[in-house]
Amino acid sequence: MTPLLQVENIAKFYGARVGCTDVSFDLFPGEVMGIVGESGSGKSTLLNCLAGHLTPDAGAVRFDTRTEGLRDTVTMNEPERRMLGRTDWAFVHQHARDGLRMNVSAGGNVGERLMAVGARHYGQIRDAATDWLGRVEIAADRIDDRPTAFSGGMQQRLQIARNLVTGPRLVFMDEPTGGLDVSVQARLLDLLRGLVREMGLSAIIVTHDLAVVRLLADRLMVMKDGHVVETGLTDQVLDDPQHAYTQLLVSSVLQV
Amino acid sequence: MIQVENLSKSFTLHNQGGTVIPVMEGAAFEVAPGECVGLTGASGAGKSTLMRMLYGNYLAASGHIRIGGVDVATAEPREILALRRGTLGYVSQFLRVVPRVSTLDVVAEPLLRTGHARDAAEARARDLLARLNIPERLWGLSPTTFSGGEQQRVNIARGFAYDYPALLLDEPTASLDIANREVVLSLIEEAKARGAAIVGIFHDEAARDRVCDRVIDAAAFTPKVSA
After folding, report:
1. Are residues A84 and A124 in the same domain?
2. Beta bridge partner(s), residue B82
3. Residue ranges making up the domain that contains A117
4. DSSP state of A100
5. Does any CB of chain A come closer than 8 Å to the CB of residue B101?
6. Which terminus of chain B is more exposed, N or C, with fewer CB under 10 A?
7. Which residues in chain B are closer than 8 Å to A243, comparing Cβ atoms?
8. Cβ contact (<8 Å) for A247 and B101?
9. Same domain for A78 and A173?
10. Which of A186, A219, A240 is closest, CB to CB, to B57?
11. What is the three-class DSSP state of A217?
């Protein structure tokens, strides 16, 4: 089976400091991978390198494109990479306002991504937007409201609708549940899990919340100081951690 | 169906002075289709550790665990996930579910994941929940708020929904009343009759004697402490 994403020795340095280095893995279609680690461990740097937001200093990120098979997205030209960003990839930001247009209506936010890939029929775009707002549990009568009038949880759900409307194959998520209260988190997790299963999405989720990865991720990568210290099946890494840092991380979680 | 060879395991506690605790050495046994093997031994003998290693939840230090053509001790995460989807079932003592998902969906999920039609999956789930005496009015609710015994039965229904060729049971009859215990034992007998290879931990001796074809003492795999 061809991996959807093949990452080879990715490294990113900020001057003399290490952002992340020596990161390699294969992600297969339908797999959800979690990346955990404390603040500053390089997980967001890595995610941004993979999603083409940062240019890595070394290594290759090969994506299985629909027409030409595996292509290195690092050396690909900018328009091609942008096209992937609009079609096959989606990026869910921690702060919804980074991923939304705050002065455009909810329906417009969802429709804009469709128009970016060529949709022009207003009725169809509005129908798709209504359908997606329903799927992320936003009432249809809020379609003309701006995201500024939405709660934090609703904004996050709208961001997810905007990202998934074009049927991407790979979703990058940076702390998708960060800053939301726990009841809203549970709802969002349930929603994400359902969408991932239904659409057969592959996803890479960066978070520091171990409960989130236990629910969503098939496998886990643990990072510390820019290096990957442990990888494996999610429940195995959490229940039988091998590396000193992972053991510390797992044992530091407060029990409710 | 299940072959364990020269399996060993130790825990290294890096944050407690690097203490190494050897817990298993040279474990070896086989389980044939249609056979039920009970693990015995005092608390701390390593029964649960062995079960978790069979499921891929704990990492083996060395040795092999062959289940349905996959060596769990060395397999890639996605191979283990595929094995868990279609071949290897596990009924743990605790139910871990996503909040907000209904009991019926929790039980039907193993069938839906393996490509069964929703009608058939839900019919099977209803049947199992009814047999295990979960009141129908609870089926639409999430099991997170259920009592301990109810959660245990939901867990069992989920574990038996799909006909796994290999099944791991961790105290399936604990905290159940007599009627429900009887239902669980007959579910185990039915699984054996259709050819499932079963490894179980039963503290309930009568239950063990009834369903197990033989027992393995986990203490035999405990490393001898050298003086």
Report:
1. no
2. none
3. 96-167
4. S
5. yes
6. C
7. 14
8. no
9. yes
10. A240
11. coil
